[in-house]
Amino acid sequence: MTTQKTSQSRLARAWDSDLAYSFRKTPVAVVSAVIVLVLILGAVLAPWIAPLNPFDPASLNLMNGFTPPSTPNAFTGETFVMGTDDQGRDVFSTILFGMRISLFVGFSAVFLAIILGVTLGLLAGYLGGWVETIIMRVADIQLTFPSIMVAMLIFGIAKGVTPPEYRDQMAIWVLILAIGLSDWVQFARVVRGATLVEKNKEYVQAARLIGRSPVAIMLRHILPNVLNPVLVIATISLALAIIAEATLSFLGVGAPPTKPSLGTLIRIGQEYMFSGEWWILLFPAVTLLALALSINLLGDWLRDALNPRLR
Amino acid sequence: MLWNMGKQGLGQSDPNPIRAFYACIARSFLGHVPVKRETTMTLTLPTFGKGRVATTLMLSAAILGAGLAPVSAETLRWARAGDSLTLDPHAQNEGPTHTLAHQIYEPLIIRDMSGAFQPALATDWAPKQGDPNVWVFNLRQGVKYHDGADFTAEDVVFSINRAMSENSNMKELLSSVAEVRATGDHQVEIVTNGPNPILPSNLTNLFMMDKGWAEANNAVDVQDVEGGETTFAATNTNGTGAYKLVSREPDVKTVLTINDGYWGRNEFPMDVTEIVYTPIQNAATRVAALLSGEVDFIQDVPVQDLNRVSNTDGLVVKTAPQNRVIFFGMNMGAADLKNDNVDGKNPLADVRVRRAMSMAINRDAIQQVVMRGQSQPAGMIAPPFVNGWTADMDGSSKTDVAAAKALMAEAGYGDGFAIQLDCPNDRYINDEAICQAAVGMLAQIGITVNLDAKPKAQHFPLITNDQTDFYMLGWGVPTYDSAYIFNFLVHTRGSDRGSWNGTGFSNTDVDAKIVSLESETDLAARNATIQDIWTVVQDEQLYIPIHHQVLNWGMSDKVNVDVSPEDDPKFKFFVLN
Questions:
Q1: Is residue A14 a part of any domain in this protein?
Q2: Which of B304, B439, B449, B322 is nearest to B369 (CA)?
Q3: Which pLDDT tens digit goes with each residue over B425-435?
Q4: Which one of A22, A36, B291, B450 has the fewest CB atoms closer than 10 angstroms to its CB?
């Protein structure tokens, strides 16, 4: 009874909060949120709503290749809403399944980057000294390389050490590792900056005086107060990670061709740009655009809403 | 007037808006390719057929023209999917590598654009009278290398011995040669182990290097490509050919310029005075470059874009069947495969598995969808041009998934297995798409295929180094004889034969027959042996043939040339309108 009551009141409190109010009053945020929600739902429910499983090579019929959208195939007579690609894969199903990979890689990579970046940022900011020097110099060095290059490097090394028979299964995890490891610097720098400000405030000094351990101070006292900017960067990083995954796959070093993600689909479609098979390129590209743009707009809104100076 | 001057190429501002649009797109893809076309002046002469009249006229015209400042500067911008693998002419027996080398170096004999023999550095050749084991070649006189050195018999002896040395990839072509000797400044004799009637056809890609240059530059040994070695000869050239190397950045750009001292300057059209070669792996980018006029000539128009290109004003597509077959190879020789999920045994060692895999491939679907009709399904790994090809064997591939499943079950692999397929992505027409289609087809009989597609420079060493279990390969046959296929692809891998046989197949009986082809002079007996060997190759399902390639050359209509069945443009033959 009581728990239900508190959860209800929590919901109500959330609805009345400044953040929710700002959300309701920003149409761009509402539209973006709806688009992201629809796309995520589509990806999550792909096995139930997609007409075909494009990742099962045995279910493909090459003769269905290059079927235009909503037009019966000349050989097999089958019809596909968004047409088929060069291998006879249904473009609609492939987009749904491809989005699963894109979103999964995006979320996991950002999660990895947060864990890594926040930990290192906290340590650097709170401990200072040589710990800070080492961590932040490594971060600086990594910042001088374009993150996509770092990701390709990590991808190449990981591919080299993976036994060939596991490569296809490992490709996704390697992608997450590559993107996550190339993305932690942002988090570390922001968290370090915020920690430097927080650690001199009275409540931290009070905690130190009563003898709390540094780990407890970092996790219980400083961390909650530096999370706001992390949330904003995380949202924007998610869009970037999804695009990074698409870029890697577009370059042919990401998801395997037999398990296409959005980037792989765009790479395939791009080959047929001049020959009139526009649907192979257009639909995945529009999906990627909608996904990345909506998440980015959400991140922009969140940044504005959480920044007291802009309120 | 005998000539007209001031013929201009398309200016920078293209009057055709569609082409201008593509130019825009292509520029964004190919930032480094210069957009501006040179304004050109050409000296065109009325043709008087072959003969001295034309030559004299040309000479007098040249004298006249000399007073009129720059006579001509016709740049041909040439693109294809992949680059030459090395400039060392004996290090890789591979199509695009030879194609670039043919512009710079010359063999004793070449094939012209129709595939017929033509004298190059040899003026004539014949078996020696009274000794059927010896071929006599009379060499062209007055030929100079690009650095000014004279071409002599010493260079021929040196080059052929170099091509038979340890790291050479041309050894199989010379396996019958016992000795090469100079019998004069411009005559050599090649001694073979037993009479070899087809020796001249083995020499058409065997380039002649300057002995002095090679010795001075520490380039006597052939580059070890598989070992990752780089040598002076792999990055520098000194040939006798119609074009000289100006600059080269592998996989980016190679520039050649005309060799004014070329011996055949007046025998061949030689309208092209500068060649800019840019490999463009991506099919759409390659087509965009042609549509926009960034390049004048591409050797591999993607099949999906044939209509687009041929319907564009100012562009022409020329199509011809190629002397090349595309197939899959399987490692049947290893006791256990590295790249599969079966422990302790090799599923590919069982001929029933290999046959089932071949039966699972639907070649008609590949032809119709992946190749859009631009291929000919194959049943054997010899193109129809080749001596030993039979319609019967070539039609023997059947698709039957049910029977293939039954064969798999009989072999004990009813639940299938997993294996990696290595595939090039910049060598053959739609190579990666064919491999992907095969993944789907093999999945129907329970074989899970992990596809690993990569550029040919990384793919080919896997085959020659025994590092792949299942791979795609294409084989052209410049000698037009089955022995070439057997020497490279069927004979047991050893020091002088079988360098491209990645299957691990080894059969002493077959090996003996392959060797016997070299010196068999009775044509009927020789052909019978060829058929015997083919029967074994077919029965063993040594390879899974896919199709014979069709060539699609796309070019600006100012280029006038016929498609060579070898996919081997030799630019000295190109006529520019």
A1: no
A2: B304
A3: 889 999 999 99
A4: A22
